[in-house]
Design a protein that fits this description.
The protein contains twelve helices and 19 strands. The chain is an alpha+beta fold. Strands 9, 12, 15, 16, 17, 18 and 19 form a seven-stranded mixed beta sheet that branches. The protein has a four-stranded antiparallel beta sheet with strand order 1-8-6-3, with helices on one face. α3 (126-135) runs parallel beside α4, α8 packs across α9 and α8 (263-277) crosses α11.
């Protein structure tokens, strides 16, 4: 008797999800605890595992459907190969009794005239489909290197590069027409505005339903704008001291702790130090009360395949540089693999976002409710600055602190940012708690 596959518990206050992608098709052999589907919740993606070893007998919902916790989405027949063997046997029997006629002969999979769009709709993720359209490559000719042979975005980019290196010229499908000289063609087009020359590139559009995660991000950001009294204050910071410290100790640090020394550790420690002086920046509003925290749980913005996520480094104020860097690296790896859990995302009293890794010079970040502030880091660039009466070149970074003016006064916001600037420009302050 088939075993039901149910939607697992998704975390506190989350009662439903969207079936993002089937990882297995009916007839596929599955192992116990092997992922067979991916669910998208308001915060993260969650994989649904097979409860027993066997064969995926049937799928009860389609990709894009909304499912509730505990709902049955598929069934697995125990005993590998039963359903998989039944399908080919049925096809052989059908072929024997109803042989296809000349007009019904199926196209081989590698036929150049096989419909690429149909292939893409069935097997490609939205990101891959978008890359296929952008680079004008035929997905049916790409050998996938992803899980179960799926085509990845890197596969599409590699195919596009190969296409540029050696374009494949396919035969013209239309009947031959009388050649027209370029000058003649241009003259005819100019004489008649209604005529236009055929362009080799095609104008295409793609409609992709917003994922549940993207919808939640949009709703939360808009809610923050509608609810909070947002204001941003700016400053710049000389990164010379931090760069020198990293250059001097990076090898010893990595040898001892097994992790590279990055910039984020300095900024987390600097924010923890500044929050002690300006606790409102690390507070939140609940109803008509202000909640002050005697700890700093830092939400670190990380880029994931399906959007920006903010896993939380808990008790960052009491962590060492090595502990902070290890936590950031672990979250970055999980975000890239899509394995962040609900618990990784919950909580957070303050956010740090580093747009500099993408080349951003300056921005006004939006707070992550119910938090009251977010620090935006940006790219480091050499600029002329005045030091001791002389113009010198220094590696400078703009800092932006967006805050909820209902809770944080302008003086407090500016003072907090100055404290961060002082700690970064003189990292000794981080060691002696100044």
């Amino acid at each position: 008797m088939p075993t039901d596959v149910k939607v697992p518990a998704l975390g506190e206050s989350i009662t439903e999800a969207t079936l993002g992608q089937w990882l297995k098709a009916p007839g596929d052999t599955v192992a116990a605890d092997e992922p067979i589907a991916s669910l998208e919740t308001d915060k993260v993606s969650v994989e649904v595992n097979a409860p027993v070893a066997g064969t995926l007998a049937e799928q009860l919902v389609k990709e894009g459907d909304t499912v509730e916790v505990g709902a049955i989405i598929a069934r697995v027949s125990e005993g590998a190969g039963a359903a998989a063997a039944a399908a080919p046997a049925k096809e052989v029997a059908d072929a024997a009794t109803n042989p296809p006629g000349p007009a019904e002969t199926p196209l081989p999979k590698d036929d150049v005239h096989a419909p690429a769009e149909e292939h893409a709709d069935l097997t490609l993720s939205p990101a891959v489909r978008r890359a296929v359209l952008e680079h004008h490559v035929d997905p049916s000719r790409i050998v996938g290197t992803g899980k179960d042979g799926r085509i990845t975005k890197d596969d599409v980019l590699a195919a596009a590069q190969a296409k540029e290196a050696g374009p494949v010229h396919e035969p013209e499908a239309r009947s031959p027409a009388k050649p027209v000289a370029p000058a003649e063609a241009g003259a005819s087009a100019s004489r008649d505005p209604g005529l236009r020359r055929e362009d080799a590139s095609e104008r295409k559009e793609e409609r992709v339903k917003m994922s549940r995660l993207r919808q939640t991000i949009a709703a939360r950001l808009k809610d923050a704008q509608n609810t909070a009294a947002l204001l941003t204050t700016f400053n710049d910071v000389d990164m010379s001291a931090v760069i020198d410290a990293r250059a001097r100790y990076k090898d010893l640090f990595e040898k001892k702790h097994g992790i590279r020394l990055g910039f984020m550790g300095f900024f987390v420690k600097a924010c923890a130090l500044a929050a002690r002086d300006i606790p409102a920046v690390n507070a939140s509003i609940e109803g008509d009360e202000i909640v002050y925290h005697d700890y700093l749980d830092v939400s670190v913005a990380v880029s994931a395949p399906k959007g920006l996520v903010v896993p939380v480094i808990r008790n960052a104020d009491s962590m060492s540089f090595a502990e902070i860097e290890k936590a950031i690296a672990a979250y970055g790896k999980k975000a890239k693999e899509g394995t962040l859990s609900i618990e990784d995302m919950q909580g957070g009293t303050f956010t740090i976002s580093n747009g500099g890794v993408f080349g951003s010079l300056l921005s006004t970040p939006i707070i992550n409710p119910p938090q009251s502030a977010v620090l935006g880091m940006h790219r480091i660039e050499e600029r002329p600055v005045a030091k001791d009466g002389q113009v010198v070149i220094r590696p400078m970074m703009y800092l932006a602190l967006s805050y909820d003016h209902r809770l944080v006064d302008g003086r407090e916001a500016v003072t907090f940012l100055v404290r961060v600037k002082e700690a970064i420009e003189d990292p000794t302050r981080l060691l002696i708690d100044l």
